[in-house]
User: Which sequence fits this backbone?
């Protein structure tokens, strides 16, 4: 089915989210829509899927005007969507999720489970989407959950498939598998609209590329006519630095020493099993791995947010195991949390208050138990300058800032205490290229000042660009520590659980002290 | 510096999900049973003379007579205590989750039996009558908790069950009395409940008012309104307005002849049968039909439901109104099902008990039935103990149903998991 957007415009108040967008996806084609966060990709998608109505312009399916009133109608007309945040009911089985809304039934609306299973098996084999129809969705790895989402669209006989940032949660191997699936979908005559902000993926999978910026289409191209730098500058609107410039690390003594750390998750299952890790002054250790392999729990343990089952954490030779978050911060840990909106900021509070959240009760921000608002204000103005935070005033609620500026507020606060160890989780998630550049540069600067830095990221590019050493986690263990010059394939395999055995030598960044070997099996 | 050898396929690390707390709850349940057994030995065995006997009557008058069961208190209670202790030890040693609840249930039942034998020493206890009372006390709770299941499975918290009970009880009594037609009374109860269900849905869904607050307001409103109307309207003209008949028991041929169970289960009024039918229908509907799949999807992940073309708000509207109807019928059972007149605040907080039963039953109809039966049995036990005069002060006896329910259920149920979107308003943006 041919999908065509002709002059689609959508406004929210004075904001024009989509400004006369034209785009055509031909049957059998993979069309990539490239753009930064806030470029208007999601709005466009919601228009296509009947969640929003365009103010102007038309969506055409095979030349026919199509104005879906709700997602149900879009689905009936053959549009299938694979959402970034999966639209799956976690407690339902795969089969229940796939048939939901289009259930095969006996008389009186009684579900025909046997037919549901059979239909899923048929689609599975046809498109190579291996999955057990009776498995509960929440028990499946994200890569498989995504297959369920694709199956769901195919089960409704979708002719146009829209994939929204589909690779955000996948390992490199899963990404390759997804690309194969995407190509087989196109080969079967379906149209695929692939929405992303990752340049490598666009070049790998697209037939056609449309780039959006600030609600407008700024260019169309093909992988053959373009490269990463050209795409990046089109997407951002100026020339961008895609590589992080840094000198080789000059590591000093170990600042963080983690010994045999074991941490449990909310349900009491072990999320981190006996991890040993050292981070030296003046080096960046990047903790790589697919999300949900214990990285979150390690960071929470390091920052005192989660109690430790066994093992020890030493900071500058002092045992800080079991300290409260307050004590950890005082001991010299700076923490840029994974979810900045939930854990890093108090969204309704002003920028200036958010900048002193951890030191509001100390000199010079408070005297005799009463706050010195003048000092708080002055501090904020200074930080705004120093960290290039774009805001109309320091008194506006922090929630009114863009993601990139919010993150700068967090970074500014955490670095203002003079930390010994900086722990940053997914420091650039959801940020635009410009902010990513800034955050990366800042992290490297801290390293060069002699701060020990631990970066947790599920973006392989970021891990390889920033890390002086790369530790890969899989199922709660560090399966290996590698030099960032190693090829992506190898690290990808380690992220999928294939690691060196304990007796084998491990690649080490030059002069990084005496790092621990990969974890022996316990 | 090299990474060669890293990709050896046999280097695959597969960690098993170890649990930090294995079976702590099961062990706790076992220890609890052993403690109960010790209480039984000290309280019901050693304190009683060896010649004391207890008699359980096993038939109610019209049914087939079953000869009474006479037991030596000492021997019976002693044997039951041993059994209880043995089951407790079994739980401690097994430490396995599977089947643990069943074992605990049987163990707890042996303790209760030992207690009853002791309480009835030197006297007679009509066991069948006790079960009948249990069932009567359970019935409104089943309606109430099914109402809760209907609403909460679709993602709306119905804390207004108590109010819907009162409205149903009031209107059921009044219409039943005025028209002389009990079926009309039941219908009126259903309408009253449905109306307040609709009000909850309207405020919570259309205007996204906090569901708890709307619920509490509805209860307060219903309490005040029925109190006022009772005083101003019903009391002055009690004979016309507040003297409905009650539904007579209907014996089901043949089945009611089954010893012991027959008179308990198959000689009841229409409310009991209706509750049983609804229980099966709601359970089947929720877990076997398209309707149920959609309702549960809306309660768990409304946005996912919306993206496959399910109208979230309509599903919720329909379910909350239906839930209100069910609670309204349950309310009518208080008046035209048993007492035969409305009195102020006669539901005595049972709407909340029903809500609790639903939560303890993990948002499942039969789970809720289990919790409701436990409460109903405790009510029945308390009233029989009051008659037997066992030497426990009556205020404490009146507390017993609540205490037993809380103790057993909090020990047994553990952490429950409500529908993920329960109580959260939904909008497209």
Assistant:
């Amino acid at each position: 089915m041919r999908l065509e957007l002709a002059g689609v415009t959508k406004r929210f108040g004075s904001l024009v989210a989509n400004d006369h967008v034209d785009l055509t996806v031909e049957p059998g084609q993979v069309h990539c829509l490239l753009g930064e966060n806030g470029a208007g990709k999601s709005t466009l998608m919601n228009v296509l899927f009947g969640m929003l109505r365009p103010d102007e312009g038309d969506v055409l399916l095979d030349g026919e005007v199509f104005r879906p009133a709700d997602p149900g109608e879009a689905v009936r007309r053959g549009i299938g969507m694979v959402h970034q945040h999966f639209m799956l009911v976690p407690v339902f089985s795969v089969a229940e999720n796939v048939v939901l809304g289009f259930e095969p039934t006996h008389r009186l609306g009684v579900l025909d489970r046997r037919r549901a299973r059979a239909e899923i098996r048929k689609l599975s084999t046809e498109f190579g989407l291996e999955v057990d129809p009776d498995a509960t969705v929440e028990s499946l790895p994200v890569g498989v959950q995504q297959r369920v989402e694709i199956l769901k669209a195919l089960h409704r006989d979708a002719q146009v498939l829209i994939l929204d940032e589909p690779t955000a949660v996948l390992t490199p191997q899963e990404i390759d598998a997804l690309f194969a699936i995407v190509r087989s979908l196109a080969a079967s005559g379906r149209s695929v609209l692939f929405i992303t902000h990752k340049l490598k993926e666009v070049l790998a999978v697209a037939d056609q590329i449309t780039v959006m910026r600030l609600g407008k289409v700024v260019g169309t191209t093909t992988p053959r006519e373009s490269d990463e730098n050209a795409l990046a500058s089109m997407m951002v609107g100026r020339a961008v630095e895609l590589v992080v410039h840094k000198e080789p690390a000059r590591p000093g003594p170990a600042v963080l020493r983690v010994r045999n750390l074991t941490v449990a998750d909310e349900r009491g299952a072990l999320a981190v099993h006996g991890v040993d890790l050292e981070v030296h002054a003046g080096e960046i250790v990047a903790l790589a791995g697919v999300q949900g392999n214990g990285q979150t729990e390690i960071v929470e343990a390091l920052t005192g947010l989660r109690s430790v089952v066994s093992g020890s954490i030493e900071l500058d030779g002092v045992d800080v195991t079991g300290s409260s978050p307050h004590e950890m911060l005082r001991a010299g840990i700076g923490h840029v949390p994974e979810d900045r909106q939930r854990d890093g900021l108090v969204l309704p509070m002003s920028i200036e208050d958010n900048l002193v959240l951890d030191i509001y009760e100390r000199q010079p921000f408070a005297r005799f138990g009463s706050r010195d608002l003048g000092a708080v204000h002055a501090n904020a103005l200074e930080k705004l300058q120093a960290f290039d935070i774009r805001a109309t005033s320091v008194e506006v609620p922090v929630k009114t800032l863009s993601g990139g500026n919010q993150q700068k507020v967090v970074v500014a606060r955490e670095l203002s205490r003079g930390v010994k160890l900086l722990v940053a989780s997914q420091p650039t998630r959801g940020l635009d290229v410009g902010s990513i550049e800034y955050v990366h540069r800042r992290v490297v600067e801290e390293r060069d000042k002699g701060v020990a830095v631990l970066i947790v990221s599920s973006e392989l590019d970021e891990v390889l660009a920033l890390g002086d050493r790369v530790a890969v986690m899989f199922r709660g263990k560090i399966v290996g520590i590698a030099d960032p010059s190693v090829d992506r394939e190898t690290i990808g395999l380690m992220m999928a659980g294939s690691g060196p055995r304990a007796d084998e030598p491990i690649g080490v960044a030059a002069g990084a002290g005496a790092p621990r070997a990969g974890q022996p099996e316990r | 510096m090299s990474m060669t050898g890293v990709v050896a396929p046999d280097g695959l690390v597969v960690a098993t999900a170890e649990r930090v707390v294995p079976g702590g709850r099961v062990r706790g349940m076992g220890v609890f049973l052993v403690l109960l057994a010790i209480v039984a030995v000290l309280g019901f065995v050693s304190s009683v003379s060896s010649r004391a006997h207890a008699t359980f009557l096993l038939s109610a008058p019209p049914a087939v007579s079953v000869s009474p069961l006479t037991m030596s208190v000492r021997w019976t209670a002693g044997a039951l205590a041993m059994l209880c202790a043995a089951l407790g030890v079994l739980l401690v040693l097994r430490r396995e989750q599977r089947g643990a609840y069943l074992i605990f249930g049987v163990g707890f039942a042996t303790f209760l039996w030992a207690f009853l034998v002791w309480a009835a020493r030197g006297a007679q206890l009509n066991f069948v009558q006790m079960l009948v009372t249990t069932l009567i006390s359970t019935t409104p709770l089943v309606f109430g908790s099914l109402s809760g299941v209907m609403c909460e499975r679709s993602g709306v918290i119905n804390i207004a069950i108590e109010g819907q009970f009162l409205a149903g009880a009031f209107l059921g009594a009044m219409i039943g009395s005025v028209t002389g037609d009990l079926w009309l009374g039941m219908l009126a109860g259903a309408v009253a409940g449905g109306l307040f269900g609709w009000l909850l849905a309207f405020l919570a869904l259309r205007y996204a008012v906090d569901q708890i607050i709307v619920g509490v307001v509805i209860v307060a409103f219903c309490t005040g309104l029925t109190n006022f109307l009772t005083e101003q309207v019903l009391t002055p003209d009690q004979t016309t307005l507040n003297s409905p008949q009650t539904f007579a028991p209907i014996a089901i041929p043949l089945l009611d002849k089954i010893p012991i169970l027959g008179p308990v289960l198959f000689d009841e009024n229409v409310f009991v049968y209706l509750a049983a039918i609804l229980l099966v229908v709601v359970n089947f509907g929720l877990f076997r039909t398209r309707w149920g799949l959609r309702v549960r999807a809306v309660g768990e992940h409304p946005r996912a439901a919306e993206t496959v073309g399910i109208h979230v708000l309509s599903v919720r509207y329909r379910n909350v109104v239906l839930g209100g109807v069910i609670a309204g019928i349950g309310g009518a059972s208080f008046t035209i099902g048993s007492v035969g007149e409305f009195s102020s605040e006669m539901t005595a907080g049972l709407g909340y008990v029903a809500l609790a039963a639903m939560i303890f039953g993990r948002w499942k109809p039969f789970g809720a039935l289990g919790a409701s039966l436990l409460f109903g049995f405790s009510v029945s036990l308390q009233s029989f103990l009051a008659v037997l005069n066992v030497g426990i002060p009556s205020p404490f006896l009146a507390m017993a149903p609540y205490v037993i329910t809380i103790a057993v259920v909090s020990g047994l149920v553990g952490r429950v998991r409500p529908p993920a979107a329960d109580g959260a308003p939904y909008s497209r943006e």
